[in-house]
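WARN  no MSA supplied for this record, continuing single-sequence
INFO  ligand: adenosine-5'-diphosphate
INFO  echoing inputs
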Amino acid sequence: MLQLENITFTVPASDSGTEPPSGQTIINDVSFAFEQGRFYAITGPNGSGKTTIAKLIMGINELTSGKITFNGRDISRLPINERSNAGIVYGFQHPARFKGTTFRDLLSISLGSDDEDKLVRIISRVGVCSLDFLDKPVDSKLSGGEIKKIELATVIARNPKVAIYDEPDTGIDLWTIGPMVDLLKREQKENNTTTIVVSHNKSFLEAADTLLLIKKGKIAYTGDLAGAMPMLEDLSVCTFDELCQGEDDAQCYR
Ligand SMILES: Nc1ncnc2c1ncn2[C@@H]1O[C@H](COP(=O)(O)OP(=O)(O)O)[C@@H](O)[C@H]1O
Ligand SMILES: [Mg+2]
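INFO  complex generated
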């Protein structure tokens, strides 16, 4: 179980000059227990603090106060790599692109092995059926969909106990969302992975066992999607999501 106990994040003085100014509380006294092997969606308006919660769990941002425990162990002060070694893995909203590095290189690092059979098993799990894809450079020439597949593959390759995906639908076609949800559900079920997806997308909200609605740095609602609907409509969640601007915006709630 991953437990957030009264966690608060206030912009540190060293980050002053950024918006909002230092001293502003971004996450305000949030408590929640993520149970092992369940699927959670975190949603809420832009700027409400979703990514900050994910970064606090991963140790990218340091807690101002409160505590995070993982299976009873206090991980609040552990650096990112130790949280990662404990099985908590974070997929970035905008994955890094590295000139001169191939997908094979990245995946081998995540997997801890360059064994061809193992690499192929991972890429087939994310729906890549071409071996040539392994030798693609991870640079700016990749499409949004390709970079997301690479990101998902590097998370899955680590065999995470807790997988956190921040807006995994950013930059991908609407038609690829269904297979992506299926993939994350399969990983959740087969590997008992606690799956936390930050998203506005209806498909992810429906796939979740539990939904957390974040508003102004606090949890405004936890429960199922049906119960959240009036609040989602109220907050106009998704209005800013570029995926909702096409003709297919049945995919998203407004
Ligand atoms: N380290 C930081 N320094 C200054 N402001 C920050 C920092 N981290 C987050 N913020 C601000 O906190 C708010 C919430 O950010 P974020 O968690 O990224 O929102 P969301 O993911 O819900 O869109 C935003 O206004 C953002 O600019
Ligand atoms: Mg965000």
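Residues 50-51, 93, 166 surround magnesium ion (ligand 2) (CB under 6 Å).
INFO  checksum written, moving to next record
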